[in-house]
Design goal:
Strand content: 5-15%
InterPro entries: NPHP3-like_N, P-loop_NTPase
Helix content: 55-70%
Number of helices: 12
Oligomer: single chain
Structural class: mainly alpha
Pfam families: NPHP3_N
CATH architecture of the largest domain: 3-Layer(aba) Sandwich
Keywords: Repeat
Number of domains: 3
Protein name: Similar to Vegetative incompatibility protein HET-E-1 acc. no. Q00808
Distance between the termini: 36 Å
CATH topology of the largest domain: Rossmann fold
């Protein structure tokens, strides 16, 4: 069995995203999908008995032991450049040590701004090099194809003149900033409008930054019928607060259960 573990770095959470906590998060994911190795159980119990905080070396040892349960392991660290510089240096070094463990097959996938490649390749303390790097940027052709697809799917059939289609495509592509998500949010916001005039107005007033686009999307969700809007916000809260892997099935069950329920309505 292969396994995928991931961690999302956030510069706003630098105090909590220490090397210990990041590697501990990877360990938690590994233990959630593999049987607890006996030596890992004993190590955790000993730590609890002595009422002491787990040391980084203990966490690394437990992670290395647990990962041996998998045929191959993939570790994705997203936005590595947002990790505190000191924690980032230690993290990469310790991940390299884990990868060097006997009988472990592990592959790393890092994402970050372009300068992270130079940092990893040139920083002597990391001991890691990147054999392959890819600049991830949405191509103009893909963005145009997606917008055209959404226009064809549009059930309102408003303003389907070639000139208006071109206006929508040109405006959204010109401000895509090399991202795919931003144009996707924008075209949804435009097509959500009920008239050609309002669509053209939405096109002119489109947010230029991803944060603003998210804000517009949330506003659209909140403007739905009360029941639909509440369910949408409940889904977002479950995504934000879930402490374990959240599957579609578990999300459905979570949304179906109300506070103080004593039994399940499976009808």
């Amino acid at each position: 069995m292969s396994a995928l573990h991931f961690f999302y770095c956030d510069y706003q959470d630098n105090q909590q995203q220490t090397t210990e906590n990041i590697i501990g998060g990877l360990l938690k994911q590994a233990l959630s999908i593999a049987k607890f190795p006996e030596d890992v159980i004993h190590s955790i119990l000993d730590t609890k008995k002595e009422r002491k905080k787990s040391e980084l070396e203990d966490i690394i040892q437990c992670l290395s032991t647990t990962l041996r349960k998998f045929k191959k392991t993939y570790v994705c660290i997203d936005a590595l450049d947002e990790c505190n510089k000191e924690h980032r240096r230690k993290l990469i070094r310790h991940l390299k040590d884990i990868a060097a463990s006997e009988s472990l097959v592990i592959r790393f996938f890092f994402t970050g701004r372009p300068q992270i490649k130079e940092y990893i390749n040139l920083h002597p303390a990391t001991g890691v090099s990147l054999p392959l790097s890819v600049n991830l940027e949405a191509s103009e052709e893909d963005i145009i194809a997606y917008i055209c697809h959404k226009l064809e799917e549009d059930t309102k059939v408003l303003g389907r003149t070639e000139d208006f289609k071109k206006e929508i495509i040109d405006e959204i592509v010109a401000t895509s900033q090399g991202m795919f998500l931003l144009p996707a949010l924008r075209v949804e916001a435009v097509l959500d409008k009920p008239t050609v005039r309002k669509r053209r107005q939405a096109l002119k007033e489109m947010p230029r930054a991803l944060y603003d686009a998210f804000e517009v999307t949330l506003k659209r969700m909140q403007e739905q019928k009360p029941g639909t809007a509440k369910q949408a916000m409940d889904v977002l809260q479950w995504f934000l607060l879930a402490r374990d892997q959240l599957t579609i099935e578990s999300l459905r069950h979570s949304l179906a259960v109300e506070p103080h329920d004593n039994d399940l309505d499976l009808g």
